[in-house]
Write a structure and sequence with these properties.
single chain; 28% strand; two-stranded antiparallel sheet
């Protein structure tokens, strides 16, 4: 049992080491996840939903607007001023954004425990500092943003309308 656990841990460490060096086009093309990206996102959503590290990642579950099934995906939580936020790194095109809006903001966050939450969309004029904090915290999102983590908040204000942001509150 201990040996199997070590094999899994070291195997995942190797995957992460390779994953961080792959070009962004392996994961996403034209603002949509590739087949490999979808497979990896599902595996990482299960991993994070079990409460395994890194702690900044959690699994978002939201009802699908067309089928009524559950959409599960990996998300990184941004924190600003003691509040938690979700950011769509793919912008308005992300399916989870449309599903959250259709569900009236009702969703579930999982990281070892299930947390029923209400997601409230943040007005465009308030998004810039949240986007900056998100880009600093989520290195995998950086290829999808023009401003980088070291850029001033004003640079994020210019692109804030393209990236939906949701405040996480208890349901």
């Amino acid at each position: 049992m201990k040996r199997a656990f070590l094999v899994v841990v070291f195997g995942l460490a190797a995957v992460v080491a390779v994953w961080t060096r792959l070009p962004a086009t392996v994961w996403y093309r034209e603002g949509r996840p590739t087949r490999f990206g979808r497979l990896t996102n599902r595996a990482m959503a299960a991993w994070s939903g079990a409460g395994l590290p890194p702690r900044i990642q959690q699994t978002l579950e939201v009802e699908r607007r067309r089928t009524g099934g559950v959409l599960s995906l990996l998300v990184v939580i941004a924190e600003v001023g003691g509040q938690r936020y979700l950011v769509s790194m793919l912008g308005e095109k992300a399916a989870w954004v449309a599903n959250v809006r259709a569900a009236g903001g009702r969703a579930v966050l999982r990281s070892r425990r299930r947390e029923d939450v209400q997601l409230e969309e943040v007005p465009i004029e308030d998004r810039a500092p949240i986007l900056r904090a998100y880009v600093k915290r989520a290195p995998g999102a950086r290829p999808h943003f023009d401003p980088g983590p070291g850029d001033p908040v004003d640079a994020f204000a210019a692109v804030a309308g393209a990236y939906p942001v949701f405040r996480i509150t208890p349901a």
